[in-house]
Amino acid sequence: MANNSMTILELFHRLGATKDVDFLREGVKVLAQAVMELEVKVKTGADKHERTAERKVYRNGYRDRIWDTRVGSIDLKIPKVREGSFFPSLLEPRRRTEKALLTVVQEAYVHGVSTRKVDDLVKSLGLEGVSKSEVSRICAELDDLVEQFRNRPLDAAYPYLWLDATYIKVRENGHVLGMAAVVAVGVRSTGEREVLGLDLGPAEDRTFWLSFLRSLVARGLHGVRLVISDAHEGLKGALNAALGMATWQRCRVHFMRNVLSQIPKAAQNVVGAAVRSIFVQPDQEAAREQLRRVADGLQDKYPKVAALLDDAAEDVLAYMAFPSEHRRQIHSTNTLERLNFEIKRRTDVVGIFPNRAAVIRLVGAVLAEQNDEWLTGRRYFSQESMSKLSELGTPPNVSGLLAAD
Predict the structure, then answer these.
(1) CA 205, CA 236: separation in Å to the nearest integer?
(2) How far, in Å, CA of 179 to CA of 200, rounded?
(3) Fewer CB within 10 Å: C terminus or N terminus of the chain?
(4) How far apart, in whole angstroms, are the C-alpha atoms of residue 208 and residue 202?
(5) Alpha-carbon span 74 to 72, nearest angstrom
(6) How many CA atoms lie within 13 A of 353 on its CB side?
(7) CB environment 179-203: b (16+ within 10 A), e (fewer)
(8) Hey, CA dihedral for 201, 202, 203, 208, is it positive or negative?
(9) What are the strands, taking DSSP E only, across 10-99?
(10) Quick one: pLDDT band at residue 403, thresholds 50, 70, 90?
């Protein structure tokens, strides 16, 4: 603590004699950095470069982040740790999400399209006197931040790409419509998980998905080896057009639900156990052989299930051609299901959104906050396991795939 105090004191004397430096902003920067260093010391159990028996975890460098404050934007270096995650308390995680939720509730109220649930919430928050101009100002500020996040360049290779959608009610032209909020999540070649994109459309049709995927490519998406999604026909067609060289993995969880829906409830446990035996095989070839045995065994009694297995054999087992360390995460869209749960938890508060922009604002804020937490936390896959992808050959180059289909 003495070192931190000395640093702040030295800064005070240096800046006090310099008229060209914003003293307050620089002072906040040094103080914030000192607080983060103290917090990460508690997290790790040791000072930087210190050897001690009390150490709990090792540091892992820094991550740059812009911190917007009342005295201006400040460049911070957030400490990272090798195991677990560290997020400084002064940055207040989820603050943007809560602000976005508040503005959506306000906007719904001032436009007279809110539900009784939102009306009650407005009253409990004391927002009845809010003006339309004030709501518009706050919304514009948040919209700029969300658009910067949605349109940022994708400057790395992303070998794994997850795609999914969740439906949200939006009021448009006097009608309430169920619109699809589609989200893309990727893993960088260095192992970090990242939210890559968000869009909102009237349906999960091929045209909408194709436009979304091509927007990702235009922002720099490349190096995709495996795309994980559910078996929506529109999405499958769009994938072939935009990312034709990437392998497609059909979500195993959704596939199992489709299989069990064809089986009487009394037989679901037995048939489910037989189908799951396919996925515990040590490699892809053994899994294919087991799938054929299971399909043959079900052919007489459950021909529809046998046909499902035969048709999905390659798509549902695609993940087994990739490193074994990754298979638990890449066989399904579970990583996006949890993200969609967070989205629904927030959007359910609103119920019916007043317009599309309000959906993008709130969902974009949720995703931006989640993205920050992922990038400051532990890698999704280790660098060592990611290096094994090089054994699969040269990654596909998706640049130049923006031509009309």
Answers:
(1) 10
(2) 7
(3) N
(4) 8
(5) 6
(6) 28
(7) bbbbbbbbbbbebbbbbbbbbbbee
(8) negative
(9) 59-69, 72-81
(10) very low
Angle in degrees, CA 266, 267, 270, rounded to 5: 130
Q: Report how far residue 280's alpha carbon sits from residue 72's, in angstroms, rounded to the nearest whole number.
A: 55
Place of tokens 């052989």: 289
Cβ atoms of residues 170 and 353 within 8 Å = yes
Which token pair is 92?
A: 């207040």
| Beta-strand runs (E) in 320-368 | 352-353
- What's the pLDDT band for 120 if we cut at 50, 70, 90? low
Global confidence as pTM: 0.70
- Kindly provide the b/e burial profile for residues 55-89, where b requires at least 16 CB atoms within 10 angstroms of the residue's own CB: eebebeeeeeeebeeeeeebebebbbbeeeebebe
pLDDT in tens, 296-346: 999 999 999 999 999 999 999 999 999 999 999 999 999 898 899 888 887
Cα-to-chain-centroid distance, residue 280: 28
The amino acid that residue 54 corresponds to is E
Q: How many CB atoms lie within 10 A of CB 151?
A: 11
Average pLDDT, the chain: 81
Looking at 44-48, 145-149, 187-191, 290-294, which range is the least confident one?
A: 44-48
Tokens of 400: 């130049």
